[in-house]
Fold this protein.
Amino acid sequence: MALKISFKIAGRVKINDSEVLPVTLAIFDEEGQIEEIVSFLYPLPKALEDKFKEWQYYIGFQGNRKVAKNRDKNYSGVVNLTEVANSLKEELNKWLGKYGWIDENGQSDFRVNLVLERFREKITQKDEVQIILQTEDRQLRGLPWQEWDTLAAYTSRGVEVAISATNFRRLTQKQTPQLRATVRILVVFGDEKLGFAQEEDFIKSLKQYGGEPHIFRQPTRQELEKKLKDPQSWHIFFFAGHSESDANGRIGRIQINPTPGALGIIEIRELKDLLAGAIQKKLQLAIFNSCDGLGLANQLTELSLPYCIVMREMVESSVARELLKHFLAAFVKDKSLFASMNAARQQLQQKFEAGKSWLPVIVANPLAKELTWNRLFSERRLSSQWEIILGLIVVAVLLCLPIGILTEFQSWETLAFYAQLYPHLVVYPSLFLWLSIFASYRAHCMIRVKTRPFVFLTLLTIVLTSLALLFELYGNRMMLMEFQHNATTTINAKQLPQLYLRWKTSEAEILSIPQDIFNTREAFDAKGNLALKKSDLELAIQRIYKSNNIKGLQGLLRIATAYDVWRHNFKYFSITRWFYAISFVTIVSCGVQILTLVSTILFVPASIFNKNKYLTYLIISEFGILLWVPFQRYTIEHTKSMLFSPEFRGTFAGINILAYAIISVLFLVTVSSIYRGASKKYQPLLLTFLLGTLIITLLSGVFGASIIDQLFGMSSTEPLTSWFSSTILFASLFFLLVRFIDLSVKNE
């Protein structure tokens, strides 16, 4: 949780003939502002001012990234910078100590320290404390406020102090979903003599986290202006090279190439309009790995740039490189901008002399939203036009089988009959599969980088789906809708004994079928050949639904639906068979692809930018597939048991092997993903949601087959009416659920 402390230091006023600085201290927790007091500080004591100037003087000797025309020669003497820094820190704490504050009557004011100490009691060692100092004074902006003992001891992480102007306005930037959602980074390297190889490597490493750096070396003014006009705009602007600010820290200049004068040195105000346009679009952060950048930041914050990172004074290249390395390493792990800067500062403290870690500073707009790497991303979405086209394609896929049946067989009764026999393929897709498809698409929109495991699992999905399709199309237990209406095949009398043995029936059993159900006298000719007509088989099935004397017909149907019986008469295969293949592929690929989505958040969670919403849609996608279970069970318990014998209720027959394998691992893996990926706030909500879907799945597994039988199955009198009305109902409910998710589930 990020807690905030704000110090607003105004211009000098007089109390009892003494000049003082009014300071407004405001404290914020996660619910908003909780306290505000006004106190006063004396201007910088001479001892502190002298030590600050001494630190500036000696730190500047080692800096080598200042604009060329104003660069001084390096100092060749020996300076104990640690001693200088410690002296400055000591004087800073004397000034800000409890006796340094006075009230409006000129008396000692202990409230500031009391408020800060009381606030500290609310803070745990894991909390992040963000401090913003609002002032226009160059000296105050340059002080290392994070070294004030009262603040420095707040948490084990340390604190990070950002500076800000006293006048600012809130900026509204609307993220627009796009197909290629990356963090676009405009990188400008100025004087190549400084050696930017390491910095370039650090920035290029961002590609694996979804970064898209565009690197320009020593560009001309025209080239830079052209890039700032890029219609896709930029999330981050990075500059490394020479820069400087005026004495008041109000105006900044950067040297984009070694050319002297206006061709190489640019004031930020000269790019004002271009930068303002980039900020209005999506520019969130500017990083200047260059000297003396307070003037740069000042001019950018006047344009309402949310965040800027600059160096307070002159900086040497080794410090600038090390800062960038550790800042980016922390930032891409989705730490906040403040926490990332603090992590980098701690690394600088360990590697360099005291005082050098004070150089980098965040310049922030106090009204800007907290910035993390993930918040730079938007959803990877198609344009609205392409989403409509994709939606129409999905609708066509989901409805292709029932439309194919209706078109080919020219009968609503036939459609109803096949829906009653095979609701797991005819009814389920339009009823629930679209739920899984939509949720999977939205989950994919949250994946910012397609990692190698993701690509591998996607290819595995294609392979498994292809194998399952081959197994289904060329296996036994063919469905009646796979044959044309006039389909006929004849089995030679010599082949029948082998088929009787294989399918556990006999000629006597088949001949025992009542003639009013199936006319066996016409089926067997004088030579003992068996002629099978699809139309006769369908009539027999419709007649036997409530009959108990069906053993012989079940044996006949086992033979009649064997692929080997029809393989030489493929001309009688229907067009609907291929629509059935499309529906089958869609169902199986959705089921297997869920494993890819689960594996992505389990093994490469950094590739997902909104884990809470991703997990929500993942659970919905799983739920949509799990609702296939009762439909498949109906097919086993009702259709197969009626057509082929109760002995054929094999739980692991056909595609069930894949389906139950997927279901067996989804729950535990998803629970693990929630604990590892979701924020603490959403963990209980997501677990409850997952548990609810599991309970519904279990209940549907127990009672679902009976409900399906009554609504869409052989016991239903109006299966089409139930089917169409249920589709409209569930589509409406799901639309409301999606709106709730988009509005309520945030990335934290």
In short: Residues 68-76, 650-655 have pLDDT under 50 and may be disordered. The first strand starts at residue 2 and ends at 9.
